[in-house]
Amino acid sequence: MTSRINRLRTSLASSDIDALYVTHLVNIRYLSGFTGSSGLLLVTPETARLYVDSRYHVQAEQQTSGVEVCRCQSRLTAEAWDDIKTLAPERIGFEATHITVAAHEDLAKGIPGSTLVPVRNLIEELRLVKDEDEIAITRRACAMADELFEWLLGFIKPGMCEQDVDVELEYQMRKRGAQGPAFPSIIVSGVNSSKPHGTPSSKVIETGDFITMDFGVRLDGYNSDITRTVAVGKADDKQREVYEVVRKAQAAAVEALRPGIGHLEADAVARDIITEAGYGPKFGHALGHSLGLDVHDGYRLSNVTDPEGKVQQGEIWTVEPGIYIEDWGGVRIEDDVLVTADGSERLTKSTRELIII
Ligand code: GLY
Ligand code: MN
Q: Ligand 2 centroid vs 357 CA: distance in angstroms?
């Protein structure tokens, strides 16, 4: 963990703050290894202090490296602030995208001698490029998602409802050793599949439906995120046509993903294919997102955000174009993709050909 903190210190050196006050637990985990549900981390050029309450004294000592564990009793924040005051940092950066207005007000009162400076994405930017350990864990999480998709193909039968599939899928995740779902699974069928983030319902799965299944597992803190759309019993010409457009768009975008391509440019590769086929307005979301300790790990391959962002080796992105037609249905195909030295590698490997179950 020391190397991560040192990378953060390099970022601090080029910013105008003397210390970073880290509250987002995922960022605390990334920098220290601590996985508890409560804690605060202060990083300065000279020190890195993790403040935890008595529930986590032992766990924090066991899990962390590169930080000094400060054992607070019951008043975690007040005790942490008293300690931070002894360090007297002039300008303290806080994670502007992760702190509430009330917590900011309390912090300002708690450390009145320091100026609070909002910072964005300082740690998220470091998290974008994964190290070998992170890639290895994500590979395992993706392999489990592939196994679960194979299992779903054998499990789903017409007459079940979407919730039946969702519940059983979660059980299968846990049984295989995952901490749980990476996010609430999306299992939507028939006209429900036109809702990109629909919720599994009591709707019964019927012959002729598309079923979109978007799910992933969390394993050792890291996430996978796969989507496949399959047809039940048969697929008509329109279903095949729409599916093929999405399949081609996804294949082209994965093929294009390589170091140096712009976030916007990658998005356009898929979007142009969908637009040329006449479905542009039916693809409303971003092409993908960075994937890691958070499912949405901070950045997007998008036509609207990060106009300057460029893809780098070692990043893991989802590539997930879709077409959604109200009152008809939808198709999405999503893979998790590692950016390599000269291209990319799919970490989820399930077939993208149209499957009829
Ligand atoms: N696969 C769910 C999401 O990307 O939000
Ligand atoms: Mn996704």
A: 23
Q: Which residues line ligand 1 (CB under 6 A)?
A: 183, 214, 225
User: DSSP string covering 116-172, please?
Assistant: EEEE-SHHHHHHHB--HHHHHHHHHHHHHHHHHHHHHHHH--BTBBHHHHHHHHHHH
Q: What is the pTM of this model?
A: 0.94
Which CATH number applies to 129-346? 3.90.230.10
Q: How far is the CA of 145 from the centre of ligand 1 (A)?
A: 14
Mutating to test ligand 1, I would choose from 169, 197, 223, 333 the residue with most ligand atoms within 8 A of its C-beta, which is 197
Q: CA 33 from chain center: how many Å?
A: 18
Are β-strands 40-43 and 19-22 bridged in parallel, bridged antiparallel, or unpaired? antiparallel
Most informative mutation of 320, 324, 333 for ligand 1 (most atoms within 8 A of CB): 320
Would you write out the chain's pLDDT as a tens digit for each of its 357 residues? Answer: 779 999 999 999 889 999 999 999 999 999 999 999 999 999 999 999 999 999 999 999 999 999 999 999 989 999 999 999 999 899 999 999 999 999 999 999 999 999 999 999 899 999 999 999 999 999 999 999 999 999 999 999 999 999 999 999 999 999 999 999 999 999 999 999 999 999 999 999 999 999 999 999 999 999 999 999 999 999 999 999 999 999 999 999 999 999 999 999 999 999 999 999 999 999 999 999 999 999 999 899 987 766 789 999 999 999 999 999 999 999 999 999 999 999 999 999 999 999 999
**Parallel/antiparallel/unpaired status of strands 186-189 and 335-339:** unpaired
Q: What's the 279 CA to ligand 1 centre distance in angstroms?
A: 21
Q: Which CATH superfamily is domain 2-127 in?
A: Creatinase/prolidase N-terminal domain (3.40.350.10)
